[in-house]
From TrEMBL:
<feature type="site" description="Important for catalytic activity, responsible for pKa modulation of the active site Glu and correct orientation of both the proton donor and substrate">
    <location>
        <position position="123"/>
    </location>
</feature>
<dbReference type="GO" id="GO:0005975">
    <property type="term" value="P:carbohydrate metabolic process"/>
</dbReference>
<feature type="active site" description="Proton donor">
    <location>
        <position position="176"/>
    </location>
</feature>
<keyword id="KW-0378">Hydrolase</keyword>
<dbReference type="InterPro" id="IPR051795">
    <property type="entry name" value="Glycosyl_Hydrlase_43"/>
</dbReference>
<protein>
    <submittedName>
        <fullName>Family 43 glycosylhydrolase</fullName>
    </submittedName>
</protein>
<dbReference type="InterPro" id="IPR013320">
    <property type="entry name" value="ConA-like_dom_sf"/>
</dbReference>
<dbReference type="InterPro" id="IPR023296">
    <property type="entry name" value="Glyco_hydro_beta-prop_sf"/>
</dbReference>
<feature type="active site" description="Proton acceptor">
    <location>
        <position position="14"/>
    </location>
</feature>
<dbReference type="Pfam" id="PF04616">
    <property type="entry name" value="Glyco_hydro_43"/>
</dbReference>
<comment type="similarity">
    <text>Belongs to the glycosyl hydrolase 43 family.</text>
</comment>
<dbReference type="InterPro" id="IPR006710">
    <property type="entry name" value="Glyco_hydro_43"/>
</dbReference>
<keyword id="KW-0326">Glycosidase</keyword>
<dbReference type="GO" id="GO:0004553">
    <property type="term" value="F:hydrolase activity, hydrolyzing O-glycosyl compounds"/>
</dbReference>
Amino acid sequence: MSAAQPVIPGFYPDPSICRVGDTYYLASSSFEYRPAVPIHESQDLVDWTFVGNAITTSSQLADSDGTGSTGVFAPTLRHHDGLFWLITTDVVDGTPEQTLQHAEDVRGPWSAPVRTRGAGGIDPDISWDGADCYLTWSHFDAAGSEIRQARVDPYTAELLEEPRLLWSGTGLAFPEGPHIFFREGWWYLLIAEGGTERGHCVSIARGPSPRGPFAGAPQNPIFSHRSLPTPVQNVGHADLVECSDGSWAMAYLGVRPRGTSPGFHVNGRETFVAGIDWRDGWPVVDEERFVAASVDTSFIDDFAAPKLHGRWISPGVFPDTFARGTENGLLLESRVQCTLGVRTRDDAWTAEAELSIEDGSASMEVRIDRDNAYGIALDGSDAVATIRIGGMTWSLGAAKLTDNVHRLRIRARSTRSIRGVSTGPDRIELAVGDAHDWRVLGDLDGRYLSTEVTGGFTGRIVGVAVENGRAVLRRFSYTTGETMQ
């Protein structure tokens, strides 16, 4: 059996975990969204609390055009000599660079990032052997990918030697996501292989030093769900941590596909935790050791707090460049299209917004990237349900709105998969409301906002967008819903 519930539901992929005392900290990828690298903490590896984002300003991460699945890839979070260290990959224009930061407190402030030269690739890891600091990453080119390494100055990110091949994995595609750690006289190199789809898996090697040479475990891959009838698929990209009681645990990503074959996952790659036993010097995964309960992810935001909550994200730009609090709500002001949203985290959910437009146009939408979204577009008193798939846009039902503050609702309802019947993972309902009732403008198959259709590494977000104008978001709620058939 496998754990069916993530410990951190929703689009929080590529988990990297470390422990300080009795507290565990976990960092995730954020890709094109700002603020970047969300961090959670836990005392028991099951219940996790969001504590903030590591990258919060344009000086740390430059603005981009928000192209899907670019941006910040696969962090590694470590604690060494009294400091937290964070290394990530910034992928913007096809020339990925590793960026290093440090902080005394995981909540920040984090130092300005320093960038490596000569370590092109993704998924960087940072580790220490005495005074020596090692940068390990996944290098790729037309010939394939492999794990490389070099000593690095962590304060300047300058490589101190020429990179060397460390391990090419077991022969499966895309060896990536390396993490190095020490246990009982051995240095271990943990990697992901097989691609982050159904063939994803975790493999491991060990050697006498962090430089190797590394020999793979005889039972590789040590963890995978490929071809297994489990509700969680695509498991991999793992990181290990020694617990405060001397036992070990593993954080890893997985997805929960639903609907007709091949199955569709919509909330991105999520974080799970498993136990680790050691047999003959190799790790064995125990998926049942940490049982996560369903998490209530509901919230209501009236934007009365002076600072926008860290759950709010935007593709390509930081929210504070176009959103600010006022006495009437959150003012969204932009000369170009900007989106402000939150991650969807559940099989079924309802999001409601109260929005007024001062000039220009705005919308409420659920999106997986800029070319694929369902929404309700507002222009004056006109509301139109819209579909955007592959960059093509269609209009559905329309309504005239009479109130100055427009009530908009997007709801995701789970569907039941029946053999021989084509079903998506859910239905997306678009509705507008007044003081008396809701009017549904569209009811759509959710498969077209799934990773299996759109591609990429992210999940859905739901929120509002403003284009060439000003709008005030007065209230926003996200409610975990019951499964509906």
